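hey m, so remember when u said the tokens were messed up on ur end? i reran from scratch. heres the input so u can diff it against urs
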Amino acid sequence: MILDKYSLGIGDRFCCQGKAQLAALIKAKQQGLNITPVWNKSNREHTIIGTKPADTRKEADDAAAACRWDGPYFVDADHIALSNVDGFIESSDFFTLDVADFTGKPADEADVKSFIQKHKKYIGALAIDGIDESLEISEQQIEAIAKKFLLAVKEAGKIYRHIEAAKGAPAKPGSDRTGLRPDFITEVSMDETDEPQTLVEMFFILAAIADERIPAQTIAPKFTGRFNKGVDYVGNVTKFAKEFEEDLAVVAFAVKEFGLPENLKMSIHSGSDKFSIYGPIKEALKKFDAGLHLKTAGTTWLEELIGLALAGGDGLAIAKEVYAKALSRIDELCAPYATVIDIDRAKLPRPQDVDKWDGRRFAAALRHNQRCQEYNPHFRQLLHVAYKIAAEMGTHFSDALDKYEDVIAQNVTENIYERHIKPLFME
């Protein structure tokens, strides 16, 4: 399986908006832009909501059939580890290998020495097209990088080979299927670490991935700045733009240098709503003729709440109930996402005030429109992590999604197409 140049992670907490999500990609296709949909959902999200990986597969298949989608599409086992991958193997054909927990833990000393010996030829000044200054590399740097990242990449190799054994390995040289990829897409995720990777670190991480024979088609590094859930990028946009361009240059160089898949591309996690950096990303992609995988999972759940609010009646009542309960359980809901949210509790509205809002006011506070004075990013971030409340409502919530499908779908499609696809790939 080969992932096309542009792909969008369109996770869906409740597996109800597949057709509406796909409608946005169909609109892009009608404009001559091909984007591959990837339905992604993590083990944490399945556990909180009470769904299973098979539910995500069914949503994707049903949406593709209903919309007569004739392009490729995938189901991503998002942020999986060796401890939970087995539950995803049957239903998934895209695997995001999350090995951040192994970063910084020392690899076997013999493995570190072997890695240094294999890559000693890069010691000195390394010139890479697209980067103004040569990378200065010392043996001490290679050793430090190996000690920090090698165990994590080796763990990714273990997960990959475990999946490969179950889903089919690439052909051996000399067989009739030489050159074919395994029957799934592999991403290596390094984004949930404390510090962004330097360019030299990125280069040797890719070297280690190649050494492990992981045919990664996407890699998710840690970028500078804050990628908080559901809100805009927080940080120096100029610095990010330079870093992103240089990362693209390193990836392009490493593909040729280490024999990695030619379509290897950057993956941006928590990529929804990062409007201030979409312009620089688009320009960098053009400059390097590079691809991109952008994950936008949680934004669809927020559009469901917006649709319910705009529907009025019991839809609005449900949206208000979710907020009131979320506020009362804020510590519990925020704990799993503490590193990717910044909520000023003093700026959260009181439930008794929200109770007086009409649907338009609720939607305005929640919808990510920075030009709107009523938009509240703290309100939005809290509701982003509050999907557990809706899951606990059971059929009361799911029946409302069915009842107000039309207004919800309109918001879901518009959000993906107008706020994400167009500024990233078209405008």
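this time it looks ok to me. Strands lie at 6-9, 36-42, 74-80, 94-98, 124-126, 135-137, 185-189, 218-220, 265-268, 292-295. if urs says something different then somethings off w ur setup not the seq
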